[in-house]
Automatic annotation (TrEMBL):
Species this protein is from: Frondihabitans sucicola
UniProt keyword Magnesium present: yes
Catalytic activity: L-threonyl-[protein] + FAD = FMN-L-threonyl-[protein] + AMP + H(+)
Pfam families the record matches: ApbE (PF02424)
Protein name: FAD:protein FMN transferase
Annotated InterPro entries: ApbE (IPR024932), ApbE-like_sf (IPR003374)
Keywords of this entry: FAD, Flavoprotein, Magnesium, Metal-binding, Transferase
Cofactor or coenzyme needed: Mg(2+)
Record-linked PANTHER family: FAD:PROTEIN FMN TRANSFERASE, THIAMINE BIOSYNTHESIS LIPOPROTEIN APBE
């Protein structure tokens, strides 16, 4: 197995391949993240989205990819009852959450060409590919009350190849919430694709307890959440990831 890491988009990317990963393929993966960062970063004044935020460029005048990504973000906003939104409270368009998922998706498409099993981890979000020789990947879920500890271990296998975790443990209350303060401190979602996993993890953090039920009723996903009192709630499969007492939902 080969393991490679690099910094991008303000976080660390880790690539584990059940085979050798050549320099050309590694650079192709890195280029995916660099391309998305160069277009959508709000920390780079030269990026098209920064220019839109600064009023120098109209969204309608951006490249088609930017408009398409914004339209996709609006579709997710409608699907998640307004909880996953591309608009910050100050009306700045911020596509960073969805863009990270899209970059992971596209980097995964590059890795799929290798034919080997692989695990791509980006700031705690994961996408994987399995093979008969590597039928599962096991991924640790950070304990929001102990950054050095693990809350549990999730298993990625079959079509459930994407895992995303959203929360306030590392960055504080950075996610807009329906009632102004997140009820849940961490949400982990296992899904068939990384966009769904990432968006729904954010949706749960932004919503109220009832919105968690709506997510599990609407989407076929596995969910593990921790609230501010330390109570753990999970769907049946996700409940198996942890050894602590867990309330089963969905």
């Amino acid at each position: 197995m080969s393991v490679h890491t690099f910094d991008t988009m303000g976080t660390i990317v880790s690539v584990r391949v059940d085979d050798e990963l050549g320099l050309v393929d590694l650079e192709a993966v890195r280029a995916v993240f660099q391309r998305y960062d160069g277009v959508y970063s709000l920390y780079d004044d030269a990026s098209p989205l920064s220019r839109v935020a600064g009023g120098e460029l109209q969204l309608a005048d951006t490249m088609p990819d930017v408009r398409e990504t914004y339209a996709q973000a609006l579709e997710w906003r409608n699907a998640t009852w307004g909880l996953s939104t591309p608009h910050r409270p100050d009306d700045v368009i911020d596509l960073s959450g969805l863009v990270k998922a899209l970059a992971i998706r596209d980097a995964g498409a590059v890795l799929d060409g290798l034919g080997a099993a692989w695990l791509l981890t980006v700031g705690g979000d994961c996408l994987s590919r399995i093979t008969p020789s590597t039928p599962t990947w096991r991924v640790g879920i950070v304990d929001p009350d102990d950054a050095a500890g693990l809350l549990g271990i999730a298993t990625l296998d079959g079509s459930r190849r994407a895992l995303a975790t959203s929360g306030i443990a590392e960055r504080g209350d950075h996610i807009w919430s329906r009632n102004g303060r997140s009820h849940f401190v961490q949400a982990t979602v296992l899904a068939d694709d990384i966009e769904t996993a990432d968006v729904l993890a954010t949706t749960i953090i932004a919503g109220l307890p009832g919105d968690l039920d709506r997510v599990t009723e609407t989407w076929n996903v596995d969910v593990l959440v921790v609230d501010r009192d330390g109570e753990i709630r999970a769907t049946p499969r996700a409940a198996e990831w942890v050894s602590r007492p867990t309330s089963v939902v969905g």
